[in-house]
Design brief:
Helix content is 24%, strand content 30%. The protein contains nine helices and 17 strands. The two termini are 34 Å apart. InterPro entries: 2Fe-2S_ferredoxin-like_sf (IPR036010), 2Fe-2S_ferredoxin-type (IPR001041), Beta-grasp_dom_sf (IPR012675), FAD-bd_FR_type (IPR017927), FNR_nucleotide-bd (IPR039261), MRET (IPR050415), OxRdtase_FAD/NAD-bd (IPR001433), Riboflavin_synthase-like_b-brl (IPR017938). This is Ferredoxin-NADP reductase. It comes from Calidifontibacter indicus.
Length: 351
């Protein structure tokens, strides 16, 4: 280790004022001591508005567990934007994300990403993962909520001939359903997988206030470990259903729903980002996270929904308003969540 450090110091003299890593990055764009990166190796269309993006990560990527998610960064008009996406590839494989064109960043990824592009990565995380031991499973998904479950199915079903999995997946139409052909092929090839599809435009949603409907799609649901991922209404309905059945611990939910932000009649204010030496004028309804990104500030973020707390930033002075509750925060040094707070008058942040 001492020899390696000595070599690095010697090379640094020759490359100064740049670092050896700066020159290495020119040769290999995945090499960076500052930020984990990945190169796009494939882009596949999924349904009518979605795409699966395959990524070869640089050194430092920790292989994901089936069902986990990761933050992905992309530069749009010179500003790096971060979003969190479930990983759809099998466990231990290079990461893939399946993105639906909703919102600025997701739409950019679907419409503009091409092979050879460089994306920024953060380590995988999340507790929505397969159980450690074999047991019958019930997966309930809707829309893009099937993404982490595909990682689970691709990991579990081909490896275990005794796998016993029921998947109930809803999409608005057959054309919008993600992975439909693959799911049908998996069901044909692996007898332990039973897939139930429901197209809500013609069939309506599965009614979780009616136990008979759930019994019809999975008669032994009470004895299965259940996983649910999808819109907030689905999560709320299934949590209530399992709780009423006296089985709240038999359900695992991936609650990745945006915070409910309420409009504000305050005028906002000027936000100073001290360390970044930037300022921006904000209204009283736009989250500070978005204001900072538009100003070119590298803002820490994760879920962007008020859940993960990755965006916590010290409040040096001023007042901010929680857009979910209306609560005002004004304590000097308090850590605020920039994704769900807005300025109330002048605000000074450490970032």
């Amino acid at each position: 280790m001492g020899v390696r450090k000595a070599i690095h110091r010697a090379v640094s003299v020759l490359t100064s004022p740049a670092t050896p890593e700066d020159y290495l990055q020119v040769i290999n764009p995945l090499s960076s001591a500052r930020q984990l990166r990945g190169v796009v190796t494939a882009v596949r269309r999924e349904g009518t508005r979605s795409a699966t993006i395959s990524i070869r990560p640089g050194r430092g990527w920790a292989p994901h567990l089936a069902g986990q998610w990761a933050r992905i960064g992309v530069e749009i008009n010179g500003v790096r934007q971060w979003r969190s996406y479930s990983l759809s590839a099998p466990e231990g494989h290079d990461p893939e994300i399946t993105v639906t064109a909703i919102g600025r960043v997701s739409s950019h990824l679907v419409q503009h990403t091409k092979v050879g592009d460089i994306l920024f990565l953060a380590p995988p995380q999340g507790e929505f993962v397969l159980p450690t031991g074999p047991r019958p499973l019930l997966m309930i998904t809707a829309g893009s909520g099937i993404t982490p479950v595909m990682s689970m199915l691709r990991t579990l079903v081909p490896k275990r001939r005794d796998a016993d999995v029921v998947l109930v997946h809803s999409a608005r139409t057959e054309g919008e359903a993600l992975f439909l052909d693959e799911l049908r092929a998996m069901q044909r090839d692996y007898p332990g997988l039973h897939v139930v599809t429901r197209f809500t435009a013609t069939q309506g949603r599965l009614d979780f206030s009616d136990a008979a409907q759930v019994d019809a799609v999975c008669p032994d649901w009470r004895s299965r470990k259940a996983y649910v991922c999808g819109p907030i209404e689905l999560l709320d309905d299934t949590e209530k259903f399992w709780a009423n059945a006296g089985l709240p611990h038999g359900l695992q939910v991936e609650r990745f729903a945006p915070a409910q932000l309420v409009p504000s009649d305050t005028d906002g204010g000027r936000i100073t980002f001290a360390r970044s030496d930037k300022e921006a004028v904000a209204d009283g309804s736009t989250p500070i996270l978005e204001v900072g990104e538009e100003a070119g500030v590298i803002m820490p973020s994760g879920c962007r929904m008020g859940i993960c707390r990755t965006c916590l930033t010290p409040l040096v002075s001023g007042q901010v308003r929680d857009l979910r509750t209306g609560e005002i925060h004004a304590d000097e040094g308090e850590l605020i969540q920039t994704c769900i707070t807005a300025a109330v008058g002048p605000v000074h942040l450490e970032i």
